[in-house]
Design a protein that fits this description.
The chain is built from three helices and 19 strands. It is mainly beta. A hairpin with a 4-residue loop joins strand 17 and strand 18.
Length: about 375
């Protein structure tokens, strides 16, 4: 056990050292972009070097360009175009292109995205003996998403969203298991509505305010989706400024509730921003609930750090909430404000969960996507 702990600490130390070197060397490349007032397009780009026990080492790159659709529009946030790609040592790869648009004094918002890749991952299968075991699976996926929102009353936005998605999944099960169980191919097309009450003072990196968003997506056979089910997402973020903009506390609640004929691909997994520290894919179910808080401290010029902690739960239905164990997660991160005029931070987080941990590179803050 001691040897395993030492090996884990050595891995974390090496990756954090590499990340620190990159953060200290990369930002100066973009300082000229920020100081040059003639630049109408500002670019943030960062290499990605992560590690988790499930997928191994991860390398990639993430870049995003920020600009105004109308230079005279001082109310709309900056629009952006982004591209990212990753590859891991277990042969997982994914690439995606995304576009965020804001125009007409922030009365209209839109987002489009498309991507493809292969995810080699695992899930936890409960067994009558030895509690359970991880089962490997591989999913080839493609998707295209479109969303448009319109301000309808004060800061309340109404929108529609739709996704075309196809997933082909193979499970690493014994040969005697029927192919109908070992292999699965289905469309995950959806359409739905969303409401967003947005009183944040900034889209990418708020210092104050709050927003509440509600999304209801339907997956139906008449949309050429493989299953008939419904998914609801509710998110509440609140930003508290302490003394000044260099000290911010953020609280967040998120729930994702799927009901009906929910397939494996329609379930949610505890991890990423809700909650960091879980990368093994052990905790997945039809419903996810997560509550957390984060402290953001810009301690020196453009440099900052964050500390965060929270609790999550993965259950089949809300009635199971009080009979299942809670999943804690906590960690710290380093930030560098690459583009001050856009409040664009780059950095990384390291977090630990229940028998799990992870490293996370990012452009922009958590809870802002």
């Amino acid at each position: 056990m001691v040897n395993n702990s030492n090996a884990l600490l050595n891995i974390i130390f090496k990756y954090v050292l590499i990340i620190l070197l990159l953060l200290f060397s990369v930002p100066e490349t973009y300082a000229k972009t920020e100081n040059d007032s003639t630049k109408k397009v500002k670019i943030a780009a960062i290499p990605i070097i992560n590690y988790n026990a499930s997928q191994g080492a991860l390398i990639g790159a993430l870049g995003q360009a920020f600009y105004k659709l109308n230079a005279q529009d001082t109310i709309s946030p900056s629009s952006s175009t982004g591209l990212f790609g990753i590859y891991t040592t277990n042969s997982t790869f994914f690439t995606a292109l995304f576009q965020n648009l804001y125009w007409n004094e922030d009365k209209w918002r839109a987002k489009v995205a498309a991507g493809f890749g292969q995810m080699n991952f695992q899930y936890w299968q409960q067994l009558p003996i030895n509690d359970g075991a991880f089962v490997d699976f591989s999913t080839d996926a493609t998707f295209a998403l479109a969303r448009i929102e319109r301000k309808v009353f004060k800061q309340l936005y109404f929108g529609v969203e739709g996704t075309l998605s196809k997933a082909e999944t193979g499970f690493d099960l014994p040969d005697f298991v029927p192919d109908s169980i070992r292999y699965d191919s289905r469309n995950m097309n959806n359409i739905g509505i969303l409401l967003n009450y947005d009183l944040r003072d900034h889209q990418m990196n708020p210092y104050s305010g709050f927003n509440v968003s509600f999304k209801n997506l339907i997956y139906k056979t008449w949309l050429n989706s493989g299953n008939d089910f419904n998914k609801i997402e509710l998110v509440y973020n609140h930003y508290y400024q302490i003394k000044n903009e260099r000290n911010i506390i953020v609280s967040r609640f998120k729930t994702s509730i799927a009901s009906g004929d929910v397939p494996f691909q329609g379930q949610s997994v505890v991890g990423q921003d809700d909650i960091r520290g879980y990368t093994a894919g052990k905790y997945r179910n039809n419903q996810i609930y997560a509550l957390q808080a984060e402290y953001r401290w810009r301690f020196y010029k453009k440099w900052g750090m964050v500390g965060f902690a929270g609790l999550a739960s993965a259950v089949e239905s809300a009635s199971d909430l009080f009979s299942t164990s809670l999943l804690p997660g906590a960690g710290v991160g380093l930030r560098y404000m690459m583009i001050p005029s856009e409040r664009i931070n780059v950095g990384f987080d390291v977090a630990a969960g229940k028998d799990d941990w992870g490293l996370y590179f990012r452009i922009g803050e958590s809870f802002g996507r």
